[in-house]
Amino acid sequence: MSSSRSGAAQKIYIERPPIEARCYQEIVRVGALICIKAPKLMGKTLLSHQILAHAEKLFYKPVYLNMHELSVQTNDRPFNNLDKFLQSFCVRVGDNLGLPEQLDSYWNNRLCSKVNCKRYFEQYLLPSLDSPVVLCLDKVEQVFPDQEVAEGFLTLLRSCHEDANSKEIWKKLRLIVVYATEVYVKLPNDQSPFNVGLPIELLEFDAQQVKRFAQDYGLTLSVDSVTKLMAMVGGHPYLLSQAFDHLKNYPAAENTLDDFLANAPTEAGIYGSHLRELLTSIKEHPQLLEAITQLVSTTNPVRLDATITRKLESIGLVERHGNDCSLRCNLYRQYFSDRILGKRE
């Protein structure tokens, strides 16, 4: 989905103590590995950029790589060939470091893809650097659907992380792995990158953080207004940023906040585009549509198929309650109740 935060929101960062301090402490550690997990539009990328900016102040070399780019580089054949994927990965990391591509010099067809990738880092990329590199891999869930590529790449990350304990050259590499869904790739426990290092899971903002977010927009919202807004969208960073954009551009809007919130769960409101994208995505998958129908038919948490729950959670539509789940906020409940059941709550 194409929903994104506004230009103003992208310049605003609300801290989630003690997460930032823990990440800054971890990133200076030899062999650092930070795994950041949260649904889409929850601020994962913003946090990763904060960590990279902190690393740059320490004279580390920051590299940000959106994994979706690699599918574009392979002629829209996403992640269906481990060798091509790892070659693209190596080239893109080199590009971000300002290093020319040297695959012909280091890629040996008699060796397996993972060995070639590690050789490229060991013999070319890392020796070319005079300081540690912090490599941030965003949207890593993009590789999950292909078991072969996912297993090869993810176990490679674990191996690189562990090599920092025994090989001097790998002490230059620090990793940030960012993803939006539960890891459903089958990996041996001793080869997974997700059960080592520092795990970070981003939650919604609390009331104090919401108030601070509004203040950074130049808004002074009453306690009652904050309460009403959170009753509709919770502490969801993206949904809040859209509301604050609107309130900043239309200062009188808070005087009629009830009208604003009444329109919010409709396609005529400020969330119309975002809601339509979600509805279109759901209607393309009958199983997701059936699951949403179950969720809007009750106010109680529902136990869905684990795969369905994972997909809905990754796009930010639901939150878990143990093995059950419910719609994340009233905005989604009211909109989908109206569009699917024909009932306006």
What can you see in these coordinates?
The protein has 345 residues and is of the alpha/beta class. It folds into three domains: 17-201, 3-Layer(aba) Sandwich (Rossmann fold), CATH 3.40.50; 207-263, no CATH class; 272-341, Orthogonal Bundle (Arc Repressor Mutant, subunit A), CATH 1.10.10. It is built from 16 helices and seven strands. The protein has helices spanning 7-10, 19-27, 44-57, 68-73, 82-97, 103-106, 113-125, 147-163, 207-216, 223-233, 237-249, 257-263, 272-283, 286-296, 306-314, 330-341, and strands at residues 33-37, 61-66, 133-138, 173-179, 198-201, 318-321, 324-327. The strands form two sheets. A five-stranded parallel beta sheet has the order 2-3-4-1-5, sandwiched between helices. A hairpin with a 2-residue loop joins β6 and β7. The model has no long low-confidence stretch (mean pLDDT 92).
Write the layout of secondary structure elements.
Layout: H1 7-10, H2 19-27, E1 33-37, H3 44-57, E2 61-66, H4 68-73, H5 82-97, H6 103-106, H7 113-125, E3 133-138, H8 147-163, E4 173-179, E5 198-201, H9 207-216, H10 223-233, H11 237-249, H12 257-263, H13 272-283, H14 286-296, H15 306-314, E6 318-321, E7 324-327, H16 330-341
Parallel strand pairs: 1-4, 1-5, 2-3, 3-4
Antiparallel strand pairs: 6-7
Helix pairs in contact: 2-3, 5-7, 14-16
